[in-house]
Each structure stands twice: as structure tokens, then as C-alpha cells.
Amino acid sequence: MRFCFEDNVLDGDLRELTCAGVAVPLQPQVFDLLLYLVAQRARVVSRDDLISQIWSDRIVSDSALNSRINAARKAIGDDGATQRLIKTIPRKGFRFVGEVQEEVAASPAPAISVPARPHTVSDRPAVAVLAFENMSGDPAQDYFGDGISEDILTALSKQRWFLVIARNSSFTYKGRAVHIRQIAEELGVRYIVEGSVRKADNRVRITAQLNDATSGSHLWAERYDRELIDVFAVQDEITNAIVAAVEPQIHAAENFRAHRKPPASLDAWDLLMRALSHYWRVTRQDHEAARTLLERAIGIDPNYGQAVGVGGKSYVRRASRLGQACCGGASGGSRRARCRALRP
Question: Mean pLDDT throughout 104-133?
């Protein structure tokens, strides 16, 4: 079922909130709370009702409940002062008062059996971010670990060098003891980010690690201890620190993996990784090695944008350094890379 109100669309089947067509990130509990309020908009929903439906009758403080209500309001462009959509009924509870139109989600098309797509030579590595484990002993604190995981997933998704598995897939392993190799096989990923959260009073300890699922080894791990003066500020700080560490570790691991493969088995991604290790050096020999590797990558996959872009910049850098006004002697691969890189 989809609920449409103002510029928002709340899709219960896809577990997605969009505003003017743009996805709005929501923590799982906030999404569940908003969905319940909208579905039960014909009545006032009591505090006990929310705790029963969203927190499964666990003990929840008023501040925790109010923070989730405020987060739901913020996600749909509402606030506690105006209460245009989510209204607080004193000593009674809450009610969604916006005008809502319901739409039944279209039935999915019948599955069509198609041959499995072979592994293409230009496939990028994929990363899965698992839900961070709550080590506090209080199930009501799950939201904090879920929020950290979701923020990391969103930030990593902005990187164009690798793929990031969607939350709906990676979070299905929450609370399950599954080996990372099995997770990697089922999700089709090479790297897995996992961690834990432990809260005590006004302090929190967050651990995170990056695993190479193919070898089962830890590529990186770190621990963060913080005071919870501002929950969202701590989440943002830890997220930025983890993403800043994870992204270069994946680059380094891919570069190392590419150099260990025999030349005949190098695919376009591996060739790009190997070329980049030469590209940032200033010697003429390294530059020529990078250019050769990039041309091979473009030859395998002419539409591989990253290889084309780096190849074009490599060509421009070479022409600039050598002071060449005319580059007519360049190879076909370099000319194609230059034209593609400069094409609007």
C-alpha cells in the first residue's frame, strides 16, 4: 500500500519515503512509526499503542519516543511547533491529520526465467554494510546501531568506484549468526562492513571493521569512544570517520588483488586499478605504463567511464608535460579516451 500526502509518498511495500520524487532516508523505527500513524490516521494512537506496535512492549523512555516522533515530523517537512501533519493530543497520544490518498501498489510482473548473466569483465567490486549489533543489552537501543549502519551505507553509496548493496538486502542478516562468506555468496559482494554499538549512561562505544569475504581476513578495524551529548552529531562524526577509512582500504585491497592476478586474467577494473598505481607517479616510465594499461581496459570495455576519464586526463597530462601542440602521433586508444573525456 502507498500513502500519498502533500509531496510525500510513503510506500509500505518498498519501505520507502519519497518527497517530490527524492528518497528520504529514515531509520527503521522512524519509518515503522510513521507508517503506523498514517495507517491509523482515523483515530488517536496512544503512547502505549505505539510502544506495543513499534517496540514490542519493551520499556521505552518518553525522550526516546519523542525523538522518534520528531524525526518522523522532520522527514515529512513537519515540526513540533506547527504540527501540520502529526499532531500531539495532550494526555492522549498522537494522530496523523494530513489529507491522505491511498494507492494499491501494482502487482509484480510474473518472474521470467532468463539465463544467469555471466560475470562481465568490467564488474566493479561490491560492498555490503550489515546492521551494527546492539551490545547494550537493551533492545530499545537498536535504533542507534541501525542509524549508524544506514548512514555508512548512504555515504558509501556516493562513491562511484564500487557498488553498495541496498539496505533491504544487507539488513536481512540482522540478529542472525551467518558466516561472512555465506553472506558474500548470497549478496554477490567481495567486501563486508560490520560492527557493534555499546551504550552505557551517556557514553557510547562503536566498533567497525572491513572484511574481505573471499579470504575471510580483516582489512581494517577501529574503535570509537564518545560522549552522547548530541546523538546526531556523534552519528555524523563516526560515520564520516568510518567511511574515510573504508574507502581507501577497498582501493588498496583491489590494487593488491589486481597485481596478484596473472596478466591474462586481468579484467577492465583490474587494469584500471593497476594503471592508477602508475598514474599518480611522475616518471615517464610510469606514465607510459599507466597509458598502456588504460588502453587495454578501454579495449575490453569501450564504455567503461572511469577508465576513459582517467585515460583522457592521462593523455592531456602527457601532452601538457611534453609541450606538444599537436598530438597526431597518439594511439587510437588514447585519442578515443581524449575525445570521450572532453565530450560534454
Answer: 60
